[in-house]
Amino acid sequence: MEATFKIWETSRNIYLKFFDNYSLEQLNTIPAGMSNNLIWNLGHVLVSQQKLVYALSGLPMHIPDSLFEKYQNGSRPDGKNTQTEVDEIKKLLSEMVEKTKADFEAGIFKEFHPYQTKTGFHLGSWKEAMEFNNYHEGIHLGIMMSIKKFL
């Protein structure tokens, strides 16, 4: 799991740079022809990891329900995030890496409810969920790289 966590931590560090390099207006901008924005992608990877790793393990997620509702699969951004919301996402993106690593080391992930992703991946274990999470975050990083070309 060491490599999986290292990849994830590196990915999250790349994501965190978006907060420093883009204004609130830019984070909220939905470019013409696109269906989402930078901040939606950042919120989405946060809530997706919590669902894939915690909820599917039968454990409570460590994010507010309001964030889950706003950024879950099938949601769409409204382009009206406040700086307070952006700051919360930034904080949680960083904190959840350490929280998940600590929970893994403490051995709290004991069960897993198999899950079929919309992209056709079958996740049968917690380890597979973490590996898929890295793949998923890579997809959204690519989307964000496309979005930033229009800002």
Structure characteristics:
single chain, 151 residues, mainly alpha, two-stranded antiparallel sheet, 6 helices, 63% helix, globular
Provide the structure class.
mainly alpha
Order of helices and strands: HHHHHEEH
Strand order of the largest sheet: 1-2
Give helix % range: 55-70%
Mean pLDDT, nearest integer? 96
State Rg.
15 Å
Written overview of the protein:
The structure is a single chain. This protein is mostly helical and 151 residues long. 63% of the residues lie in helices and 3% in strands. It has six helices and two strands. It has helices at residues 2-21, 24-28, 38-54, 65-71, 83-105, 126-148; strands at 115-116, 122-123. The chain has a two-stranded antiparallel sheet. Strand 1 and strand 2 (122-123) form a beta hairpin. The chain starts with a helix and ends with a helix. The model has no long low-confidence stretch (mean pLDDT 96).
Detail the topology: elements first, then pairings.
Layout lengths: L1 H20 L2 H5 L9 H17 L10 H7 L11 H23 L9 E2 L5 E2 L2 H23 L3
What's this model, at a glance?
The chain is an all-alpha fold. It has helices at residues 2-21, 24-28, 38-54, 65-71, 83-105, 126-148, and strands at residues 115-116, 122-123. The termini are far apart.
